[in-house]
Design brief:
The structure holds two protein chains of two kinds. Chain A is α+β, with helices and mostly antiparallel strands. The chains are: A alpha+beta, B mainly alpha. Chains A and B meet through helix 1 and helix 2 of A and helix 1, helix 3 and helix 4 of B.
Amino acid sequence: MTDRRRSRTLLAVLVLVSLVLLTVDYRQREGGPVAAVQRGALAVFGPVAEGFATVVRPVGGFFGSIRELGSLRERNEALSADVEQLRRQQVSVADLQRENDELRAQLSMRDRLQVTTTGASVIAQPPSSVERSVLLDAGADNGLAPGMAVLNESGLVGKLVEVTARNARVELLTSPSAQYGVRIAGTGEEGLLTGSGAEPFTLNILDPEAEVEAGAEVVTTRFSGTSIPGGVPVGVVEEGAGPATRFLRVRPYVDFTRLSTVQVVLDFPRQPTELPTSEQVPLPEGPRPRPPAGGGGGGSDR
Amino acid sequence: MTPRLVMMAAVGVTALLLQTVVMPVFSVAGWRADLVTLTVVAFALADGPETGARYGFVAGLASDLLSGGSSLVGLTALVLLLVGDGVGRLRPYLAGTALAGEAAVAAGGGAVAFALYGVVALLLDLRQFTGTLVVQGTVASAVWNLVLGPVVCRPVAALSRRFALSDTPSATAGSPSRPW
């Protein structure tokens, strides 16, 4: 009976103390003595908990890892997706770098040829795999016109054959229907270059007596009726040829399977096929002018 | 008396440290086991209502003081002393149902403790408690304590027997009336 009374008394006292603490803390909160005791208790318990955590955290981490085994696959997949995305971003950065390098090289080519160009991107390959043309994202609105030469950093790509307001189609140098006037850069031997699809170009040397060495560079030459500037690199002769051989194989500089950006030459005039009559200079009246003394071959009046 | 007090303090501090450092790792949907309440239930089951109430009050007060201002000091103490006293009074009815009884009482004690705390917190507009949160927490506490009840109660009971008061006649019989 005494124990029961003591137990009840104890319970009542503890409840009373709890209620008093509750009331004091509820009424005073941050500024009260209970809050001060609370801060002191935290100051003591904090380092203890920190030390305890140092000891047991690896153990807890181990068991936590076991518990997370089920979700590890999902997290792994999510992380793999992130890695793939980052890899794609890296690739796109590399692509931008490559494009930047291409454009810089194309500008260098433009400066060397002393022409005005406008840049364009290749936006589509032809639907047919045998068709040798590409579509550009620039057109008449950008100053493009049929016949204009198209270059990239490696050399001549082709010429425009169709132009709309916003797009243009380039007939590639590889097209069998295209023919360009070219010359051997080192010797000046001229010829006609014809595309052969996926095969190297065919070069028809005009001079049947000419000798061309393997590795000779082939560049464009001004040709009547075209807007192709002279001196644009085209390719190299694969095999040398003597007087008996007129048709040579020329390996192109341009990789036609990897065209992404090109430059279209805007200001190179079409070479005339005939001299316009209205612009011809009339014959001078009076005696023909004498050639300068000592000049020329057989111009002397001795 | 002193070794027993030290033992109970050690149990309480260990429970608090595990509760604050280790248990967050094992939380399920944000709910974790309440080891402090479990030790209150364990001491109450082992030694009776008086020990349960005293230990519950001290352990609850320690929890309140270490709550960092998120709890009203005295609230957990009040709740746990009532749970300790109530569980201790149930002890005579649990004879012969050791494992299932411990688990059931631990689950019930945890549920009551959380529900009581939640209701008072709602009344005092404390910590933005909501009715849904109280119900969820009550169920979660019951489930956690159901699982961990025997795991905690058995060692605590063993410690209580090991550090029983030798000057109390009933202590030697395994049922001390005033163990603390």
